[in-house]
Automatic annotation (TrEMBL):
Pfam families for the chain: LRR_14, WHD_DRP
Origin species: Panicum virgatum (Blackwell switchgrass)
A biological process from GO: innate immune response-activating signaling pathway
Protein keywords: Plant defense, Repeat
Keyword Repeat: yes
Residues of the Disease resistance R13L4/SHOC-2-like LRR domain: 123-482
Source taxon at top rank: Eukaryota
Transmembrane segments: none
Record has Repeat as a keyword: yes
Protein name as annotated: Uncharacterized protein
Length: 488
């Protein structure tokens, strides 16, 4: 259904599969999206699709289809009348019964007219791409529609969405970046709706009827879009992002406690609220958790009592929600599938770094500490064998130096040492002769190095020596990584 050479986002594809009924939950304890991820990975393993990795996380984000495979798929699709494609480059003649329609161009033709006339009979899926926005059929005519995807189609000067409430069979509705400012109140009629994506639109508030969508599993909104009271009624929700909570909507935290099926929660608070901790205790299926706090001062210890679920994959608490110390649950036996960790820990010792280094699946680490302000001035060592899968590492406000021993971080490609404090008490750890060798040469996959050294507790000459040592190490590295080293 996607144009040739399209980058197809994995999550978008899986949600469409679910809406079409292609995914059946045969095993107890497995939800449809997890089964869809298994199918997606199978297609990669069988070379049917080509994986595309997120450059920041190192995880598969989307895919492409090779031209020859796409030709084969379209051939089978035409034989089975599976998908009708209308585009400038490649069109299939519409039959009298259209099950799935992909509109990819904007040229009017008798073929296009015939296709849109045939939609009302049996169409289950309609995907429209921006060049074909002028050919959008009246949504109210597609009574059996399950999937409607209009990403990037500009609807700012049309009222075509007013008929959405008539699509009673709709399971999937993607209105991403359509320049719309509101949804019709009748959207509450879509009692089978599972996915609603209205991101990148100037929508200030969702209709109050949204809370009647009891089968909704995925709700994606912008932080500028408010949700109405009653969000706790959506007890099937597995994904909610990005939810903004301010002083006027603080009661939503209590409603979140009812969403016990949540697997992904992205939330932004104007200021920290202790009620959130009690809410998180009840969300035991969380796999991805983002917590942002808009205003200073930073909160220290607010999450200390929280214990993450064992299946946690991603945790991002930014730099304002601080843990007092490294949580005891951050260890390889408790969170074995943790791949992304972005936290601030006020006090960090060598034993804590060693524990982090044993996390078997960790690919991204952004760690901020406050050791210098606590008077902990010794440097830290990244030991051999630690961080076996780490690809991206950000150490913030660490006391100089951090030494990387041979065998540590074998897959690390990007290293950032921001606001790294240079202390005289920590000199001489890197090499036997008291030099400033941090062991960058021991990181065999390194491609990018950034460092910002703050001249605190050191003379300007010593700071420049540290900068020179890092610059020299980067230049001497066999990979010749990109590097930017600065001192202030």
């Amino acid at each position: 259904m996607f144009p040739e050479d399209s980058e197809i986002v994995k999550e978008r594809l899986i949600r469409m599969w679910i809406a079409e009924g292609f995914i059946q939950c045969e095993k107890q304890g497995k939800n449809p999206f997890e089964i869809g991820e298994f199918y997606f990975n199978e297609l990669i393993n069988r070379s049917m699709i080509q994986s595309i990795y997120n450059s920041l996380t190192g995880m598969i984000y989307s895919c492409r289809i090779h031209d020859m495979v796409l030709d084969l798929i379209r051939s089978f699709s035409c034989e089975e009348n599976f998908v009708t494609i209308l585009s400038d480059m490649d069109s299939t003649s519409p039959s009298s019964t259209i099950r799935r329609l992909s509109l990819q161009n904007g040229k009017k033709s008798h073929v296009m007219a015939q296709a849109t006339r045939n939609l009302s009979q049996r169409a289950r899926t309609v995907v429209i791409f921006p060049p074909a926005v002028a050919q959008v059929p009246a949504a109210g005519s597609c009574r059996f529609l399950r999937v409607l995807d209009l990403e990037h189609c500009n609807f700012s000067h049309t009222d075509s969405l007013k008929y959405l409430g008539n699509l009673y069979q709709l399971r999937y509705l993607r209105l991403y970046s359509m320049h719309i400012s509101q949804l019709p109140e009748e959207i509450g009629n879509l009692q089978f709706l599972q996915t609603l994506d209205v991101r990148s639109n100037p929508i200030s508030i969702l209709p109050s009827s949204v809370v009647e969508l009891r089968n909704l599993m995925c709700l994606d909104i912008d932080e500028t879009t408010r949700v109405p009271n009653g969000i706790g009624n959506l007890t099937c929700l597995e994904q909610l992002s990005l939810l903004r909570i301010d002083g006027s909507t603080i009661n939503i935290i209590e409603e979140l406690c009812q969403l016990t099926e949540l697997r992904r929660l992205w939330i932004k608070l104007d200021e920290w609220n202790d009620k959130l901790l009690g809410c998180l205790h009840k969300l035991q299926k969380i796999q991805e958790l983002h917590i942002k706090v808009h205003r200073w001062p930073r909160n220290i210890g607010g999450l200390d009592a929280w214990v993450a679920p064992r299946h946690l994959r991603l945790l991002n608490t930014e730099d304002i929600c601080w843990f007092s110390t490294l949580p005891t649950w951050v260890n390889p036996s408790f969170v074995p599938v943790l791949t992304w960790l972005q936290i601030a820990v006020r006090e960090l010792h060598q034993v804590d770094l060693d524990i982090l280094g044993r996390l078997p699946a960790l690919r991204f680490l952004r760690l901020m500490v406050d050791n210098k302000n606590l008077g902990i001035l010794q440097g830290l060592i990244v030991s051999p064998g630690s961080f076996p899968c780490l690809e991206f590492c950000y150490f913030l406000k660490f006391v100089w130096p951090v030494v990387f021993q041979k065998g540590a971080m074998p897959r690390l490609t990007s290293l950032s040492l921001w606001w790294l404090f240079y202390a005289r008490e920590a000199r001489g750890i890197g090499s036997s002769d008291g030099g400033l060798d941090l062991g960058l040469g021991n990181l065999p996959s390194l491609q990018d190095v950034k460092a910002m050294l703050r001249c605190e507790g050191a003379s300007k000459e010593e700071a420049e020596q540290a900068k020179a040592a890092l610059t020299h190490a980067a230049k001497m590295h066999p990979n010749h990584p990109r590097h930017h080293i600065d001192v202030y």
